[in-house]
Amino acid sequence: MIEFKNVTKTYPDGTTALRGVTFSVEEGELLTVVGPSGCGKTTTMKMINRLIKPTEGSIFIHNKNIKEFNIHELRWNIGYVLQQIALFPHMTIEENIAIVPELKKWKKKDISSRIDELMNMVGLEPETYRKRKPDELSGGQQQRIGVIRALAADPDIILMDEPFSALDPISREKLQQDIRELQRKIKKTIVFVTHDMDEALALGDRVCLMKEGEIVQVDTPQNMVLEPKNEFVKEFIGNRKSPWQSAVDVIADRSGSRVITEEEFERRKFDSYGAYIMEDATGNYVSGVKQAEKVDLPVLENDLPLKKAADIFEQHGEELLPVVKGQQLIGTLSYREIVLHLKQHVSTENGVIRS
Ligand SMILES: Nc1ncnc2c1ncn2[C@@H]1O[C@H](COP(=O)(O)OP(=O)(O)O)[C@@H](O)[C@H]1O
Ligand SMILES: [Mg+2]
């Protein structure tokens, strides 16, 4: 959908803001771009709607070089939300929202119903707020109008450059929820810039982490936390945890209900059709038992992260595996138990828990 190929930007004063940046945003995806101040986030955004030209490299939208688009068409099909609330102060809220639909020559009636629809979507009653001037709204409400103004003419792409950073934490959280819901409902392609890793992880389908004009890692929030590519990513992520990082012994079944002794195995052989784990008289792991037969199983060390355990289940196709500490059998684990644990802990925050 949006594709950067080897894009470099050097400003006239010699500052190189981007160095050979290559990435793409899929249709309907919300990509968050995060990184320290000055790493090139705004430069990246401004290039997408041609406010800034690359020094080298190319940018494509729908496989067409953006140089080849009519500039108005390009900009009208890209909604842009800025950090500083950029509503026109002398215009009413409805006039502010109507700007691009009017440029696109929509019918008055269609514009009006679009305004109602959008205002309702973000919880601002049209009857109450349509005729107000921006300064008669709170900061959070104004920014909400900024967001729906960017959506007004139904653009394919929405760019948001630190749209919430000037807001208080409560308005900010509310707007983050709005964006997540919007994204679910309308499936727009959104590039969302922030310098806040919490916001990036909470909102992004994928997160693009930048440093000094280069991309360090583009990944899902999960992978960013689980498999940071280097020390810089680790540091930027901080001490966030994913439920995938829990150790297997946290959820291992210690009841012994799927454990049999060698002696029981000999005795009950004829009727043990389920999957069991066999231990010896001292509680050491011996083997698995399936369909009354002994089977070799991979063992899960007690401190193994669930993510790795899930990989082992997938590779071996086993239903039940032993959890051990050294030779000692401390419990059993099934794939199902992993799934249940994750379901419990994966919240709306893309499965990343703040600690
Ligand atoms: N118009 C400009 N002229 C010269 N340097 C600029 C200009 N705009 C931005 N820069 C520099 O380019 C780098 C990236 O800036 P920017 O894209 O705004 O970063 P971010 O949005 O991540 O904070 C910074 O070093 C900044 O000082
Ligand atoms: Mg910026």
TrEMBL record:
Superkingdom of origin: Bacteria
Gene3D superfamilies: P-loop containing nucleotide triphosphate hydrolases
Domain CBS: 292-348
SUPFAM superfamilies attached to this UniProt entry: CBS-domain pair, P-loop containing nucleoside triphosphate hydrolases
The family this protein is said to belong to: Belongs to the ABC transporter superfamily.
Residue ranges annotated for the ABC transporter domain, each copy included: 2-237
Protein's UniProt keywords contain DNA-binding: no
Pfam families listed in its UniProt record: ABC_tran
Keywords: ATP-binding, CBS domain, Nucleotide-binding, Transport
Name used for this protein in its record: Osmoprotectant transport system ATP-binding protein
